[in-house]
Structure formats: structure tokens, C-alpha cells
Design a protein that fits this description.
The protein is α/β, with parallel strands linked by helices. The protein has four domains: 279 residues, Alpha-Beta Barrel (TIM Barrel); 238 residues, 3-Layer(aba) Sandwich (Rossmann fold); 110 residues, Immunoglobulins (Immunoglobulin-like), CATH 2.60.40.10; 71 residues, no CATH class. It has 23 helices and 28 strands. A six-stranded mixed beta sheet has the order 10-16-15-14-11-13, with helices on both faces. The chain has a five-stranded parallel beta sheet with strand order 1-3-4-6-9. Strands 8-7-5-18 form a four-stranded mixed beta sheet, with no helix packed on it. Strand 27 and strand 28 form a beta hairpin. The longest helix has 21 residues. The two termini are 47 Å apart. Bound molecules: beta-D-glucopyranose. The site of beta-D-glucopyranose has 7 residues, from loops.
Length: 776
């Protein structure tokens, strides 16, 4: 997928001219942050300052004196949209794009040029402390949503920063740990979302990760930052470091890292100047990076709008929409939900999170919201005829107080109620950028409260607030209904009330599997690594690829989520379109309410030559349907998305196979299925005398040639020749051809092998030419 060089734009030309007007020292300064959030302007060369800011789910605008990247100091009020974990559960790219656009408007209004997001790292383990900031365990879902978000943001003239490139899947040891990943896994799982966002959305910046990848610091990884990102994917923007990720500025620049952030107190520029002067670094490399930074500065400031403003209420409403679309109704026995908002019932609202919402994660993404809805107030407003009694039930991250007294009060409140709404979740200190969790459990005072409350009143609905998966298996059987709210952003309180009372119909679907227990998770045995190395031993079997292929029971599978209505799938049609497939299915809303169904298309490579997951997500859509409405939904699968990364060929290959096309409502709720034959990519491994007999047989030219030889063996050896398909036959297939020719009982010699090689070379001139050993 190498990209031809494009004609350069006027901005590129202007940036190159501007960079030429800079001295060596100035270029070194331009390519290093001037402060925590800004670059240095060079008015004499016409290069303005660039202002960057966190992200991603809201603008974290700090003033330079009180800047930090750990979520310590305040930032200006901005809309706190639901973090990626929740947005992803909407499975709605159009919604992600609208959120991106709104974020862009807020950046414009605050004079911010680049917003540091989205994060498309894969959720390798539910323990990662930063999972709330990432979309999914699936690279396709992450990539599609990430690309939509970037398109929305950049449509406003504000640059995105795709992060953290690459394989930053844990927080433990993140500044130095090496993610040790085999090439196939790296490409299929950990690079795939980045590749999609780069190619489809062209983010103006890409942020390198802190961690090392296969031993090499991401900030110095030329293979990653230049050969893959630019030469293979055609990236043309700026590569920026994560804050403080640069180890050696000269090595990082040579690897393709254009901009070091933040300011390095003069060290970065000094090192660059020294490296150029000593001949260690070619000045032309610095010229290229300086021109890229200058181009970004010209581009972002051309879009700046000093009069820009945004409608706070409209953005709050969008945050509310995203929250209602992202919450996942996991369980709803006997249709306990939705509650009747007009009923004269007594509702016990229990749990501190109802009053003090947990609505975003901690660390560099922490936003100061423009307003904050809590569920307790929202529930009272939504159901004016109901009597609502509140009890906190447990302490959250604060002084412990009298836990037993809190529990008893909650139990009394529950006993007197018709229905209990129990708000549980992870305390803020449990999950944050910078460290991982050690287990998947809710705090014990919460599970103990749940046991006591459900004893007093089994009519209990649990509403969860958590950025990473929590284990449900220990307690979920005690309750009839569970709403997984993830982290719902600043409008989460009203969104929760709307979902519980049915003015919104839940449509969120799990973007990550909820396992039964930690020991079942894919990375369990290798987490978090040792002696500075995290070995990704599970390979491509991450998330549902792991659980489904191994047929492990889970609490809820990838893609699961209930609705207050029901949907029927009929009439699956799979047709070829261009190089790919069009999958059309009729979806009918067979229930009483309007709602979105998230239609999911998975494929299975039947009889693949490589070990592949049982099924993999290839397309999806969130489809709005009125009661009784039927819609034909067509989802396209690009042929390239059927490929695997072939370690023999060193590239992506589509195998010529039957592919199963499974359409359904989760990875384990497949409603319709079809099979389609796909022609494979033409690829032949280069053959030589050391290639196995099996490899020769699979080769388009070598295959027929070796068959003639084997036929001769068959005739000469008679009954001693192994039966096709027998274990002994397989032993022969595994032998190197040169090895076979050495066996005394086999009527082959090196002249035969030489003749075969000559035939292959003649027919496929690219074939390798290993010299044969000679029998003395
Ligand atoms: C985080 C980035 C963030 C940056 C700036 C780093 O610690 O990893 O995601 O954008 O700080 O705050």
C-alpha cells in the first residue's frame, strides 16, 4: 500500500519557504515545545504559535502557569462529553463525528489549534487503568469511530492527535515497558485502528507513545514513525511526542518525530544543534520536520476564528444524547425497566454515585464541566408523582466513616420502597491514567451493600459507573436489571433518568466483553509483564477473538445490549461489490417502542491456512427504527478487511476461501448467516531447495512440478509410499526438499531437485536461488 508522492499544496510550499528562513538554532527551537502547551512562533519567517490541549472527551484548557498532564490542576469549563468507553458503546460513527465537531467548535472558541485525541489503543486487558479513554477491544470498531471523531474535529479546522502510537496497552511501567508483539498480532490488532484513522481521516498530528515496542522507544522507532506511518500508510502530518516521551532528541528526530512536547528547558534544541554540528544528524532531516511543524502552524492558524463561540446548552444536549446512546442495558428480567414515570410509587435511590456522579476518568483527560447533572435530582424531576428516598449506602474515596451505619440506613430505605435503584461503581481512585487496576471487583462495601439490599428488596436495579469492566459474576444473579452506564459525561444524570423511565430507549452495545473472571482474560498469564517486557503471548486472540474462539463462558459477550423493544433480522443478501462485499439485511422493529438496533456483521475464514479467530467484526451500523418499521440495511465490507497479515509474505493477504458472513446482535447472537467464496490474492512464497515439500505442493508453479516427481516416487516405492493424508504422508510434506533428496530409500537425488528449481525459476523468475549442496 505504498503511496505515490502527491503534488504539494500552497501551504506546504509556504511552510517550506518559511523553514528555509530559519537558522539551525531556530529550526531546533521550532521542533520543540516552547511551553507546556505551545510551540515557538517565528514572526520574521511568518510562522505562528501552535496551541495544543488535552482531550479527548472535552477540552482541558489550562493556563500555562498551572499546566500539568496528570489531571492535577484546573482547566477552563468545557463540555464534558462521555469518554471513549461510552461513546464507543453507541457503535455510532455519525454520533462520534458530531461529538468531534462540537469539540472542534469549543477549541476554536478557546483558541486551541490541536486537541490531543483520540486514543485508539486496544483494550488488551480490562485492567488497563486508561481503558476509559480507549474505544474497544476490537480494532475495526476503534478505527471506524476514531476516524469519524477525527473527521468531525478537523472539519472545524482543529487538528487531532491520534494517540498513543503504538501498543500503549497498559499503564504499569508505561514510560519504559516494552510491548513485545509478533508482527501478525501487531498489524492485525495493535496497528490496525491507527492505520484506518490515518488513511481515512488524515489526522494532522499523530502522538507517539511512551512505551517501547519490541525493545525500541516509540519516540525513536523509525520503523513505526517513518517506514510504516509515512512510507506505507502515506501519512503527511506532524508526529508529536507524548508529553516527555523523548529520550534522545537527535535519535527521535532521525526516526521521524517532528515535534517534541512539552518544552524541554532548552535541552532538546541544544541536542539537535550539537548533533547537526557534529555530523551525527543531517540538517536536511531537521529541515523536513521544521517545515512540517511550520505547515501545521500555518494550517491551524488559517482556521482560527477570534469570534468563534459555541452554544453551551446545545453541547450539553449533545453530551446527553451521547450518554443515552452509550449506556448498555445488560439485563432486564421480566421487563422491570422502564419504570413508569407517572406512577405513584416509592423509589429508593441508593449509592453515593446517584448524588455525586462518577462521570469521567482521571489523568490528563480530566475536564472541568460546564454543568453537571446528577441522577438523584434528575430522577425526582422525571417522576414527580413518585416518592424518592435517598441513602448514600457506602463511602466513595473519602473518609470511611461508619460503613455499617450507611449500609443499615440503605437497607431500611430499600425495605420501605417498591423499587430500588442502586448506583454502584468504581471509586475515582480505582482507575486512572498512570496505573492499572489489580482486580476487576467492585469495592467490597458495595457488593456487601448489594447483598443486604437485595435481601431486603429483590426489586433492585443496579446502575453502574465504571471506566473499565467490573466483574458481575459474583452478584448479578441477585438482581433483575443492570444498566452499565460506563462514564456518562456531564449530562449522565439526566441520561440515566431518561433511560430508567423510558423516555430514551437503551441502545448501547458492549464494545468489550465482560468476562466471568480475571483469570479468563486473554492477557492474564502475561500481564503486566516482567523485567520491563510485556509479552503479548495471546497473539491475535484479544477480546472476543479470545473468548469466542476458545468457547469460554462470559458474563456478556462483545456487542451485547438490550432494548425496550425487539428487533427481527430477515432476508440476508450478500453480493459482491467492487472488490468487496455488500451485506444487506432487513431489520424490523417488532416491539412497542422506537429504538436503535446495532446490526453487526462478522466474518469467518473457513479453512484458513493460518490460525484465525472464530469470527471478526467487519461492519456495523446503529439503525433507528420506529415501532413496526422495517428497513433494508446495507453494510459494506472492503475486501482488504478480509485479509490477515501474512508473516511469510510480510504483508496483508486475502486468502481464496469460503468466508462465512454472520449477521447478528452480538458476537454470540448471530441471527443470519451466509457463505461467500472470495478469490485470494495471488501470492507465492519464493521456493528453494530448503522449502518443504508441502510449500512446493502449495506453489502454483512448483506444485505441478513436484507432483510429477512424487508420482515417480509413488511408482518406484509401491506399497511403501505413504497414503495421501496419512500421518507418514504429513511427515513427508514437512520435510525440506533437500532433506528428502538425501534419504537413501527415496528415489530422488539432487539432479532432480536442480531440475525442479530450474523449472520454477523459468516460470517465476523472482524465485529464490539457493545453491544446492552436492553429494560427494
Ligand atoms: C498523556 C497524553 C496526554 C499528554 C498531555 C500524557 O501524559 O499520555 O495522552 O495528551 O500527557 O497531557
Amino acid at each position: 500500500m505504498a503511496h505515490a508522492p502527491k503534488a504539494i499544496s500552497a501551504t506546504t510550499a509556504a511552510a517550506r519557504e518559511a523553514a528555509v528562513r530559519l537558522t539551525l538554532e531556530e529550526k531546533a527551537v521550532l521542533t520543540t515545545g516552547a511551553s507546556w502547551w505551545t510551540t515557538e512562533p517565528f514572526p520574521h519567517a511568518g510562522i505562528p504559535e501552535i496551541r495544543l490541549s488535552d482531550g479527548p472527551h472535552g477540552l482541558r484548557l489550562q493556563n500555562d502557569e498551572r499546566a500539568d498532564h496528570l489531571g492535577i490542576n484546573d482547566s477552563a469549563p468545557a463540555t464534558c462529553f462521555p469518554p471513549a468507553v461510552t461513546l464507543a458503546s453507541s457503535w455510532d460513527a455519525e454520533l462520534a463525528e458530531r461529538v468531534g465537531r462540537a469539540l472542534g467548535r469549543e477549541c476554536l472558541a478557546h483558541g486551541v489549534h490541536v486537541l490531543l485525541g483520540p486514543g485508539v489503543n486496544i483494550k488488551r486487558s480490562p485492567l488497563c487503568g486508561r481503558n476509559f479513554e480507549y474505544f474497544s477491544e476490537d480494532p475495526f470498531l476503534s478505527g471506524v469511530l476514531g476516524a469519524a471523531w477525527v473527521k468531525g474535529l478537523q472539519a472545524q479546522g482543529v487538528g487531532a492527535s491520534l494517540k498513543h502510537f503504538a501498543a500503549n496497552n497498559q499503564e504499569n511501567g508505561r514510560m519504559s515497558v516494552s510491548s513485545d508483539i509478533d508482527p501478525r498480532t501487531l498489524h492485525e490488532i495493535y496497528l490496525s485502528a491507527f492505520r484506518r484513522v490515518v488513511i481515512e481521516a488524515g489526522p494532522w498530528t499523530v502522538m507517539c507513545a511512551y512505551n517501547r515496542l519490541n525493545g525500541v522507544h516509540s519516540s525513536e522507532n523509525r520503523r513505526l514513525l517513518t517506514e510504516l506511518l509515512r512510507d506505507t500508510w502515506g501519512y503527511e502530518g506532524v508526529v508529536v511526542s507524548d508529553w516527555g516521551a523523548v529520550v534522545d532528541r537527535a535519535r527521535s528526530l532521525a526516526a521521524g518525530l517532528d515535534l517534541e512536547m512539552p518544552s524541554s528547558s532548552g535541552l532538546g534544541p541544544a541536542r539537535l544543534v550539537e548533533a547537526v554540528n557534529s555530523g551525527e544528524l543531517e540538517e536536511e532531516i531537521l529541515d523536513v520536520s521544521a517545515a512540517r511543524v511550520a505547515e501545521l502552524a500555518l494550517k491551524v492558524t488559517a482556521h482560527a476564528d477570534p469570534d468563534a463561540d459555541y452554544d453551551r446548552d446545545a453541547h450539553h444536549a449533545l453530551a446527553h444524547e451521547a450518554a443515552t446512546r452509550g449506556a448498555v442495558l445488560l439485563k432486564n428480567d421480566n421487563e422491570l425497566l422502564p419504570l413508569d414515570p407517572g406512577a405513584d410509587t416509592r423509589i429508593a435511590v441508593l449509592g453515593e454515585f446517584a448524588r455525586t456522579p462518577r462521570y469521567q476518568g482521571a489523568g490528563s483527560s480530566k475536564v472541568t464541566p460546564t454543568q453537571l447533572d446528577d441522577a438523584l435530582t434528575a430522577l425526582a424531576l422525571a417522576a414527580p408523582a413518585a416518592r424518592i428516598d435517598f441513602a448514600a449506602g457506602f463511602p466513595v474515596d473519602g473518609p470511611r466513616g461508619d460503613v455499617a451505619a450507611l449500609r443499615e440506613e440503605a437497607v431500611r430505605t430499600a425495605r420501605a420502597a417498591d423499587v430500588v435503584l442502586l448506583f454502584l461503581g468504581l471509586p475515582p481512585s480505582f482507575e486512572s491514567e498512570g496505573y492499572d487496576r489489580e482486580h476487576l471487583e467492585l469495592p467490597s462495601e458495595q457488593t456487601e451493600l448489594l447483598a443486604a439490599v437485595t435481601e431486603a428488596n429483590p426489586n433492585t436495579v443496579v446502575i453502574l459507573a465504571n471506566g473499565g469492566v467490573v466483574r458481575l459474576a459474583g452478584w448479578i444473579d441477585r438482581v433483575p436489571a443492570v444498566l452499565e452506564g460506563w462514564l456518562l459525561g456531564q449530562a449522565g444524570g439526566t441520561a440515566t433518568a431518561d433511560l430508567l423511565f423510558g423516555s430514551s430507549n437503551p441502545s448501547g452495545r458492549l464494545a468489550e466483553t465482560i468476562p466471568l473472571r480475571l483469570a479468563d482474560t486473554p492477557a492474564f498469564a502475561d500481564w503486566p509483564g516482567e523485567r520491563g517486557h510485556a509479552r503479548y503471548g495471546e497473539g491475535v486472540f484479544v477480546g472476543y477473538r479470545h473468548y469466542d474462539t476458545r468457547e469460554l463462558d462470559v458474563s456478556y459477550p462483545f456487542g451485547h445490549g438490550l432494548s425496550y423493544t425487539t428487533f427481527e433480522y430477515t432476508d440476508l443478501r450478500v453480493t459482491r461489490s467492487g472488490a468487496g462485499l455488500d451485506v444487506t439485511v432487513a431489520i424490523t422493529n417488532t416491539g412497542p417502542r422506537a429504538g436503535h438496533e446495532v446490526v453487526q456483521v462478522y466474518t469467518r475464514a473457513i479453512g484458513s491456512q493460518v490460525r484465525r479467530p472464530l469470527r471478526e467484526l467487519r461492519a456495523f451500523a446503529a439503525v433507528p427504527l420506529a415501532p413496526a418499521e422495517t428497513r433494508d440495511v446495507t453494510l459494506s465490507i472492503a475486501r482488504a478487511d478480509l485479509a490477515h497479515f501474512d508473516i511469510g509474505a510480510g504483508t496483508w493477504l486475502v486468502e481464496g476461501l469460503d468466508h462465512g458472513v454472520d449477521v447478528g446482535a452480538s458476537s454470540r447472537d448471530i441471527r443470519l448467516t451466509a457463505t461467500v467464496t472470495i478469490d485470494g490474492d495471488v501470492h507465492a512464497d519464493a521456493l528453494d531447495a530448503d522449502s518443504t515439500v508441502g510449500a512446493w505442493r502449495a506453489h502454483p508453479v512448483g506444485g505441478p512440478a513436484i507432483e510429477r516427481l512424487l508420482e515417480r516416487m509413488r511408482k518406484t516405492m509401491g506399497a511403501a509410499y505413504p497414503q495421501e493424508g496419512s500421518p507418514r504422508y504429513r511427515m513427508i510434506a514437512d520435510m525440506r526438499l533437500s532433506q528428502l533428496a538425501k534419504l537413501p530409500i527415496v528415489p530422488l537425488d539432487f539432479d532432480d531437485v536442480e531440475a525442479l528449481l530450474a523449472e520454477v525459476r523459468h516460470e517465476s523468475p523472482g524465485a529464490s536461488r539457493t545453491e544446492l549442496p552436492r553429494r560427494s
